[in-house]
Amino acid sequence: MADILIASVVSRMASELSRRLAGVCARTPDSTDLAQELAESPADLTILDDGFAAPHTLDLLVELRQFFPNLPVIYCLDPDAGGKLVQRLLLELKVNELLFHPISCDTLAQRVASLLGLPWAPDDSATAGHQAVIKGRLAEVWNRARSRMIERLDVLDQAGVALLEGRLGSELRKQAESDAHKLAGSLGIFELAAGTRFAQEIERSLRCDSLRSEAQARRFSELAAALRLEIERSPAVQAPWGQASSDPGPRPALLVGCDSELVARLCEEAAARGWRWEAAPDMSAARTVLSSLNPSAVLVDIDSVASTGEPVAVLSELSEGLPPLPTLILTSGGNLMDRVEVARSGGLGFFPKTLPPGEIVEAALGLLDRLQSARSQVLAVDDDPVVLEALAALLDPSGIRLTGLSDPLRFWEALEGSPPDLLVLDIEMPSLSGIELCRVVRNDPRWASIPVIFLTGVTESGTVHQVFASGADDFVAKPIVGPELVTRITNRLERTRLLRNVVEVDTLSGLPNRLKSRRAFADFLDLADRHGQPMGLAVLGVDGLGRINEVYGQATGDEVLRQLGRCLRRAFRSEEVVARWAGNDFRVGMYGLDRPGSIRRLEGVFRTLAEQTFVGSGMEEFHATLSGGVAGYPDDASDLDGLLRAADDARRRANAGGVNQLLAASFSSDDPDGPRLIDLAVATGDKATASVLLHAFESEGFRARALRNGVAAARMLAGADTRLRARVLVIDLDLPGLDGLTLLRQLAVDGVLDDTRAIVISPASVGKEAALALELGAGDLIAKPFDVPVLVKLVRQALDSPRLPGRSHTTGQRHPVTSDVTAVRERP
């Protein structure tokens, strides 16, 4: 009899393991002194939950390892555990298995059985329910795909007739081979094994040119007829209600245990938002309707359920099902530990019944939206749409969202438009092969580590060698077996998540590192562009860190950095980016805050760290201070590299000026209170156009800025608080945020166009907007689509215009823009 000691806040773990594994005795500790309990009653395995004796659970594990270094340990964590903790558990404390809450009973039983060498079988009822959902969704795909299958059969029939008559041309032969290949790859998903064999033999005969004799031609026709019979006798199947992917709204939600009055009010509020809710009086009734309703979420009145049984068991039953159901809790109270236990059992929302029904429904919708966006994403490229639809049906019940792409030429656009967590590639496709796509991905540093799984109907050793030589992680042979593919993908995603936690999080400070945060900074900047919002970016460091390491010891210096990481995590919300880039280099991105607002937010961090007392290796006490620089978008730069340079420059000035200083990025104008003077401002949402113009003129020594949002452009160029004055302004009438014509009108009213030459980019169909732009003061007009060299020439001519500021009227030579500051500021 194997003995297992379980120290977890989820009390039902012990009973579930004892029920599911024969020959296992699972027990819970009588106290938090695990070492003493194991000394008195040894166990074969220990399951330790991070919340069991929080915040000292790790100390318990350290003590266990001192006395029982070889004891198998399974450690249970929250899903957002940092990379530092994961690394320590795996490498230093030698944990055998890491599991993330909410933990499926099947998963826990499987890992325990594996460590102890015990037999294990999954819960048949859960597996059956999962398979029923998948079969229903595949049936729906089959119903839609049968017409395409018949079209492919028609092509094979045409090829068979042409073959018998001796007139099979190369074009028809190639089309028939392609259709046979697609049938061979897709029929297996729908469990049509015989059809797969027929299609594979037809494909081989067409590919190997083995159709020269009359007997071979007859064999081809017989195979095509048998394949048609196999497909046509497979009837259309009605998928279970609620699983139609064409339904644009959320699937119904299920209310469990709520009183009739609350049910009526919640259903009314949900209906007003296009969401249907059903009700079940208790868990027994809920189990009856779950499989047929296939709800998007379950709301449980925990007070009602608590009167009929253990509420945590009910929550685990719902959240550990296949597929897992998002479970929301309605309660009249609940202390902190109740909430912790609910969260660890899979509950995702904790709502007081006193909330208005409308707010409960809105919160539930918001939660489902967040869950949807947090799902793992897979990008699959296959030229057969049937395979893509079937893959989506297989993966969706496991919480994996699939984006299907049938045109490999659009691969890069799809990859960057919605970054996936994993790629699934077919080998044989028109235009580009999956192997070529994989090589392109592996050659780009941004995507070099993304997992790649190949689907292939060709399993010869040469092809398999090419697949792995291109950088693939795994391959699955067609015809696809659904459970095998899902297992391969989920295992690869889980492994990637663990590695990403280690790779993308700095182990000392617990903050994201440079690799992860740079992407987040870029995303924030794009968001600020789209919505016309400011963004602050700060660069911070500890004053005299080298001296601290030298005088007080390296471990003390590390503790200062660790405390700075904690201060930053506490001070900034989840919608802000905090990172440690390297060594003594910390960076913070603050969406929605301009430079002064960012400085005010950071001052609290400076005070908090300065007030902390540190103790050196010789027990000396000391205090640490910070220095930093802050830059703001769009005031100081319009791109990430420009913001980083401006903030770095401000930090260098702060370091040179002493300790405990936080400085803003400096103006480039002679008059710090006036607008910054530049040669060229480009206001367009087209990043390519802005990039070309900036590169062309900055390389010649001109000062140029891109403003990719109309609101930001108006704030910078117009109004009483003008921050930029440009000699030449390029305005796209299709400018996002605030259209170009409105911006131009505002600039004209403020008199900006008196000293600025404006070039307008208009839509392809030039209408009254373009004429109005010229009336407002635009000097030149260019319509889309245009040749970039033509636009560059127009800008260069405008910069050379003798009537613009920053130019000598007598010599015609370009001078620094700041030489004409006074003249520009004195003009109305």
Explain this structure to me?
This protein is of the alpha/beta class and 828 residues long. It is 48% helix and 17% strand. It contains 31 helices and 27 strands. Strands 2-1-3-4-5 form a 5-stranded parallel sheet, sandwiched between helices. Helix 7 (170-186) runs antiparallel to helix 8 and helix 27 packs parallel to helix 28 (740-749). The chain is globular. The termini are far apart. Mean pLDDT is 78; it is low at 236-249, 667-672 and 803-828.
Write the layout of secondary structure elements.
Layout: E1 2-7, H1 13-20, E2 24-27, H2 34-40, E3 45-49, H3 57-67, E4 73-77, H4 83-92, E5 97-100, H5 105-116, H6 124-164, H7 170-186, H8 193-207, H9 214-232, E6 253-256, H10 260-272, E7 277-280, H11 283-293, E8 297-301, H12 302-306, H13 311-319, E9 327-331, H14 336-344, E10 347-352, H15 357-374, E11 376-381, H16 385-395, E12 400-405, H17 411-417, E13 422-426, H18 434-442, E14 452-456, H19 461-469, E15 474-477, H20 482-503, H21 514-531, E16 535-542, H22 545-552, H23 554-571, E17 577-582, E18 585-591, H24 595-611, E19 614-615, E20 621-622, E21 626-633, H25 640-656, E22 662-664, E23 676-683, H26 687-698, E24 704-707, H27 710-717, E25 724-732, H28 740-749, E26 757-762, H29 768-776, E27 780-783, H30 788-799, H31 821-826
Parallel strand pairs: 1-2, 1-3, 3-4, 4-5, 6-7, 6-8, 8-9, 9-10, 11-12, 11-13, 13-14, 14-15, 21-22, 23-24, 23-25, 25-26, 26-27
Antiparallel strand pairs: 16-18, 16-21, 17-18, 19-20
Helix pairs in contact: 1-5, 4-20, 6-7, 6-9, 6-16, 7-8, 8-9, 10-15, 22-23, 23-24, 27-28, 28-29
